[in-house]
Amino acid sequence: MYRGKPIGDRDHVDRVIKCIEDWDRIQPLDVNKGAYARQLRCLRKVLQGRDADTPVIQTIFNPIGMARYLADEVYVVHLRRDPTRVERALVALTETCASFARAVIAEGADGIFLSTASASYDVMSEDEYRRFGRSGDLAVLEAASGGWLNILHLHGQHPMFRAVADYPVQVMNWHDRTAWPTLTEAMTIFPGAVAGGVEQFTLLHYGTPDEMRAQVKDALRQTRGLRHIVAAGCTYPVTVPEGNLLAVREAVEMSVS
């Protein structure tokens, strides 16, 4: 239920997973029905109304992220207490997620924005993520491989950047202004493009247009304008002033003029 949060997300008034045995109920879903079908219809309308040179990508939360939403933060406890049971559910979630990714590309989207909050040292170890997260991520990215603009978003302040730097995506996005690595460091680790440079929760929200121009200038200095998409480090609040967004765009346009 949406209750007006500035970040745009909804409050969960109930969870599908209330006890560890509930994971046995998770089955693959038909993405041509229900909420997935509504999202595909929305995507179709966006694609019909876009400019020809404007890429459109669909946000998708990865399978282990879906598990988190189903159970809240207790999903990590369940993974450690009964990994086999939760892994069976993750297989079903991966099938649904991959089916949706294929459908998105078939509709004409240019790629997906695959978000993970679990590839973080605040959440689990690298060994745990390799076991529970990586295979699902790769299956979804394979399903979206027909897209030319697939982006991986690493959510959180301690991302496993090196552990996922070999993922088959064109772009990596993370909270570069508040979390390691910097844009400069990331370009030595990841061979594709980096998306970042703008801190979204404080500066973009409460800063001035001049501060936004200065941050964009610094970001472009870090990357020399190569393999770099100027972007926020994550979703920004819906209450961000339009003037700050325009200042970011103007600063980029001035740098290439």
Describe this structure in words.
This protein is α/β, with parallel strands linked by helices and 257 residues long. The protein is 47% helix and 12% strand. It has 10 helices and 6 strands, in the order αβαααβαβαβαβααβα. Strands 1-2-3-4-5-6 form a 6-stranded parallel β-sheet.
Give a brief outline of the structure:
By secondary structure, the chain is α/β, with parallel strands linked by helices. Helix content is 47%, strand content 12%.
Number of helices: 10
State the secondary-structure class: alpha/beta
What is the oligomeric state here? single chain
User: Strands across the major sheet, in which order?
Assistant: 1-2-3-4-5-6
Secondary-structure element series = HEHHHEHEHEHEHHEH
Task: Pick out the low-confidence regions.
Answer: none
* Main sheet properties: 6 strands, parallel
